[in-house]
Amino acid sequence: MTTKLEVLQLALEKALGEGASISAALGEVTVVVKAADYLQAMQTLRDDPALRFEEMIDLCGVDYSQYGEGTWDGARYAVVVHLLSLANNWRVRVRTFAPDDEMPIVQSITPIWRAANWYEREAFDLYGILFDGHGDLRRILTDYGFIGHPFRKDFPISGYVEMRYDPEQKRVIYQPVTIEPRENIPRVIREDTYGMK
After folding, report:
1. Rg of the chain taking only CA atoms, in angstroms
2. How far apart (Å, rounded) are the C-alpha atoms in residues 120 and 26?
3. 190 confidence band (pLDDT: 50, 70, 90)
């Protein structure tokens, strides 16, 4: 007897062929596709009558630069999309890696799911991932003059600049960060029986 998860995996293998790596763990199916095949794979996931992933639930960027405590040797940036098939009550996670770490670019899926518009803008704003074919790729969460991408692992926690209202100039001004870096000292537990009650 095959489970619903196995049926989904078989349907995905049949629809996507050998160009996709399909795995299941903890009751979830993940599909990894190459950036060159990403747009076509997403079109297939939506339009294939056996799959029918009509709804895009989420899209986010991921920075793998410090993944596995720095042992990761693959591409640095990935785009992860969660899809839902209402007709089949299936969910799938699709991951694609941007081939160039210096300028991460993947195809936009806004022609397939219009809901991807703001999600792709968010991934661009926070990670610097570019989406080829996106009609309005601009910042969505940070200020237009913001320098850098704050969710990248190499971005400083305090940032590079801060803004404040200057009453003398009667406007908002930008200045270098004035926050002094702190060293957090871990709490030392001195009792021998701590947590044993």
Report:
1. 22
2. 27
3. low
